[in-house]
């Protein structure tokens, strides 16, 4: 049996609830029992493992692995060569840059099974994770936070924070539109979209 015929046969055997307006490339694999939302696109050689749920209008790049039992919100973009493991949750509007890394076990050993010791990672609404960044398990990335390329995150990143370096440290604050904020007397106005923010006790919130 040729590879194209084999791929067509495999697609006919899949019984997952794909929305009729979702798009899955013929080389991608979506296990039975997964949910794929309207308008979502899954590209070449990606694999969505059993029990995973992907919302609407997401873009899943090439060579991406998701699951098992992972929940991804709406309008999420995952670039090429990213693995989203069990224990990771991505809320709406999250961006995962090319080849960024999640972990789900803190102290792995090849000869010691630790499947019951997964540490959960939550990436909250609108956060961006730069190319080749690493998110060590057990941490939360706040709403609209921005993790720089190559950063290694070993602790929580608060809402709107810009974190960079190894280990990642807070270098500033970002508007939800992705423009850096400049505070005076605890207040900032985005120079691009005009949203207003306040800073209190090293935390930032919208006004």
Describe this structure in words.
By secondary structure, the chain is mostly beta strands. The chain has one helix at 3-13, and strands spanning 23-24, 29-30, 35-36, 41-42, 47-48, 53-54, 59-60, 65-66, 71-72, 77-78, 83-84, 88-90, 95-96, 101-102, 121-123, 128-129, 134-135, 140-141, 146-147, 152-153, 161-164, 169-173, 187-189, 196-200, 203-206. The longest helix is centred in the N-terminal third of the chain and has 11 residues, at 3-13. The chain starts with a helix and ends with a strand. The mean pLDDT is 93.
The proportion of strand residues reads 25-35%
Spatially, the strands of the biggest sheet line up as: 1-4-7-10-13-16-19-21-22
Largest sheet: 9 strands, mixed
Mean pLDDT: 93
How many domain regions?
1
- The number of E-state strands comes to 25
What's the CATH superfamily, by name? Hexapeptide repeat proteins
- Given this structure, which CATH class is correct? Mainly Beta
CA-based gyration radius: 19 Å
Number of helices: 1
Low-pLDDT segments: none
Shape descriptor reads globular
Q: The CATH topology is what?
A: UDP N-Acetylglucosamine Acyltransferase, domain 1
Structural class: mainly beta
Distance between the termini: 62 Å
Spell out the helices and strands N to C: HEEEEEEEEEEEEEEEEEEEEEEEEE
Helicity level: under 10%
The appropriate CATH architecture is 3 Solenoid
